[in-house]
Design a protein that fits this description.
heterodimer, A: 406 residues, alpha/beta, Rossmann fold, 16 strands, 38% helix, 22% strand, elongated, B: mainly alpha, MetI-like fold, 15 helices, 84% helix
Chain lengths: 406, 330
């Protein structure tokens, strides 16, 4: 997959002395100190990132971290002070007003925190807005807008006015307006922050489906780490205008870059972030045709495990044997007749919390790809170790803002 | 007794002030003949050099005013009263419609119909030109901070300077009669519509404007599709203010020969004829209430019925009636 959006060393400074402030920021001077010296606020500080096509890239930060400024730099609603922005490899920084308008019209669209629906237009007219700007004839744009409204489940409300809709429905209209233009890049500025928790979860659940339907790249801003971990393929944690850490959700949780990130991830439910593939290990296996009860026990002693998988000649799991199952039977019994063939199985994308039940039996869970390939095993003890290991990583909490991760 | 010494001191101080030589005042030496300069500027510079220009300004006002006046004087009283009442009913509801009908019949009954129609056409002309000049000016001010700051003192002056001050140059430049009266009224009534338009456009939520730009709209598209419709309510409030100011200018405009109800009041004043002044005044008040209620209802309607926020919506409501459009919503 190619890079859709690339940002190189982006700075945005508000205030009278941008050059001086950038110079100081490059030297690593703190934001407050820069403000004291130059009366300028460094909102975005040396941000570089690249977003792959059809990725959902989440920027997570608290209020004042510069995330809303950053996302407005991507379509240049705010002009960056320095740095480069590339969309499909084309630089946006030096684009003329007209080029910029063409880009916004044809490639990008945006969803806003407080919806920003036009109260004087109907739901459908709102959804049509981007198409109207493009100059698409009335009938065609109505058709496309209706399709977008259908995707968010609001086609029945096309002729209502936004004020007659609930908050969640209004944001669906906002989303439909963003999708109706079939954007290559969809910028979402805290789209679900103003919604009730239940509605928010519902929208989060639907977003992935909508993204795959519209095949769009999404840049998503949020202040909620759980939302970021749930939605993002990649997550950037932002603090004081800077990216503190960028990585996939598992990495953010398991290997926080510093105390700040660690404090965020402290009370994250890891069971809902980590997947089977991230903690599975290469299986130590027994061959169904060759091994016997006694060789199996020897193998168990060798690797220090009490339960091993038995694979057939194709390398696919056939069952498992536990040490206590082997104690009662003669040593030369074929392993294939001693094994339990009803083994727990999962796929690599499963979250850990979905494995709890299977792990309760104490038997390692076999991880198999869609075509049945044996990828590894998840040890129940490993699952539970992962769930509690946060205690040891979140060391100094006092430096991080209280209540940061709700 | 207690404040005896104080009194003595005060009088001592007063004496000291009184004894100060006159030479401490600037006017002792010379006075600035500003009045002469202004008189020269108006009489000997503006009038001879720019008279054609001012005559040209006068022309459209004259056309609109005479057109309206001829129409309003020509239309039978009862027919017009019914039309206005019907309009009031569509826009503002039954109560105001009944009031409008009674008010207009009463004006005719006290023999004030003709001057009322003259005043009505004057006020209408003034408001039309205020809107033509004021709304674009307000929009320009909303889009350009520098223009807005430089416009503010001008508007302040227009709102605080007594109208009598500019009546004289207006007479010099435009002569006397109805049209100069309307021009004085325009100057007097213009500021609110500019201020409200500016305010209304600026008050549109920045996220809405941002949304427009984020979808690639041009500045003009954002202005006409988002900012102006959303500011329409405030602009209507400004128009209502302008209308009220225009009505309050009627009597003053009569000083320079503008006819209508103002003239009735003015002649009543000149002859100490209380009754005549009073019926002129009653005419003005009734006309003011009717016009205020109707325009206010037009503005309020904008907030209640969202579908009528647009120009076409307001147009529709006027010609198709509020009930019908409200019903369409279901």
């Amino acid at each position: 997959m190619t890079d859709k959006l690339t940002v190189k060393n982006l700075f945005k400074v508000f205030g009278p002395n941008p050059e001086q402030a950038i110079e100081l920021a490059k030297q690593g001077v703190a934001k407050d100190e820069i403000y004291r010296q130059t009366e300028s606020v460094v909102a975005v500080n040396d941000v570089s990132l690249s977003v792959k096509e059809r990725e959902l890239f989440v920027v997570m930060g608290l209020s004042g971290s510069g995330k809303s400024t950053l996302i407005r730099c991507f379509n240049r609603l705010i002009d960056p002070s320095s740095g480069e922005i590339l969309v499909d490899g084309e630089s946006l920084t030096n684009a003329s007003d007209e080029e910029l308008r063409q880009l916004r019209k044809n490639k990008m669209s945006m969803v806003f925190q407080h919806f920003a629906l036009f109260p004087h237009k109907t739901v459908c007219e709102n959804a049509e807005y981007g198409l109207k700007v493009r100059g698409i004839p009335r009938r065609e744009r109505r058709e496309k807008a209706m399709a977008a409204l259908e995707a968010v489940g609001l086609d029945a409300w096309a002729d209502a006015y936004p004020d007659n809709l609930s908050g969640g429905m209004q944001q669906r209209v906002g989303l439909a307006r963003g999708l109706a233009v079939d954007p290559e890049v969809l910028l979402m500025d805290e789209p679900f922050s103003a919604l009730d928790p239940l509605i928010r979860r519902e929208m989060q659940d639907e977003l992935a489906g909508i993204q795959s339907k519209y095949k769009t790249t999404i840049i998503f801003i949020t202040h909620d780490l759980h939302e970021a971990l749930k939605l993002g393929n990649h997550i950037a944690i932002m603090k004081d205008g800077r990216f503190v850490q960028v990585g996939p959700p598992e990495e953010i949780v398991t290997a926080p870059a510093d105390d700040y990130v660690a404090a965020f991830t402290h009370d994250v439910d890891r069971g809902r972030v980590l997947r089977a593939e991230s903690i599975m290990e290469a299986p130590v296996t027994l061959q169904a045709g060759k091994d016997t009860a006694s060789s199996a026990v020897a193998r168990m002693d060798e690797v220090g495990q009490d339960c091993l998988y038995v694979v057939d000649e194709k390398g696919q799991p056939a069952g498992y044997v536990r040490r206590d199952m082997l104690a009662e039977i003669p040593g030369d019994t074929k392993i294939s007749s001693a094994m339990e063939s009803n083994y727990p199985q999962t796929d690599p994308g499963r979250f850990l919390f979905e494995l709890y039940e299977q792990c309760a039996e104490g038997v390692p869970v076999a991880v198999q790809s869609e075509d049945g390939k044996f990828l590894g095993v998840v040890q129940p003890s490993q699952v539970f170790t992962e769930l509690v290991s946060e205690e040891s990583t979140a060391g100094s909490q006092d430096k991080a803002p209280a209540g940061a991760a709700q | 007794m207690a404040n005896g010494p104080d009194n003595e001191q005060a009088s001592g101080f007063g004496k000291f002030i009184a004894d100060l030589p006159e030479s401490l005042s600037l006017s002792y030496y010379d006075t600035l003949p500003l009045d002469d300069w202004i008189e020269w500027f108006v009489k000997d510079f503006l009038v001879p050099n720019f008279r054609p220009f001012f005559q040209a300004i006068q022309w459209p006002v004259h056309q609109v005013l005479t057109g309206l006046d001829v129409f309003l004087q020509g239309i039978p009283m009862l027919l017009f009263a019914l039309i206005v009442a019907l309009f009031a009913w569509r826009v503002a509801g039954k109560g105001i419609a009944i009031f409008t009908l009674i008010a207009l019949l009463f004006i005719d009954l006290i023999g004030m119909w003709e001057p009322t129609m003259t005043t009505f056409s004057m006020v209408l002309t003034a408001v039309i030109f205020c809107a033509i000049v004021g709304i674009p000016t307000g929009i320009a001010a909303a889009r350009n901070d520098r223009f807005a700051t430089s416009l503010r003192p001008v508007l302040d002056i227009m709102q605080t300077i007594p109208p009598f001050v500019y009546l004289v140059p207006i007479v010099m430049l435009f002569g006397v009669g109805l049209v100069p009266g309307v021009i004085a009224t325009i100057i007097f009534a213009l500021p609110p519509i500019i201020r409200f338009t500016n305010l209304g456009i600026r008050q549109v939520q920045s996220e809405m404007v941002e949304a427009g730009f984020a979808f690639g709209a041009t500045k003009r598209q954002v202005l006409w599709d988002i900012q102006v419709p959303l500011a329409l309510r405030t602009i209507m409030a400004g128009l209502n203010q302008t209308l009220m100011l225009a009505l309050s200018m009627v009597v003053i405009a009569a000083l320079i020969g503008a006819g209508g109800l103002g003239e009735t009041v003015f002649t009543g004043l000149g002859r100490l004829d209380v009754g005549r002044a009073a019926i002129g005044g009653i005419g003005i008040v009734l006309l003011a209430i009717v016009m205020d209620r109707i325009t206010q209802a037009m503005g309020e309607g904008e907030s209640e019925r969202k579908e009528n926020w647009t120009f076409t919506g307001a147009f529709k409501r006027v010609f198709m009636g509020s009930k019908q459009t409200a019903g369409q919503r279901q």
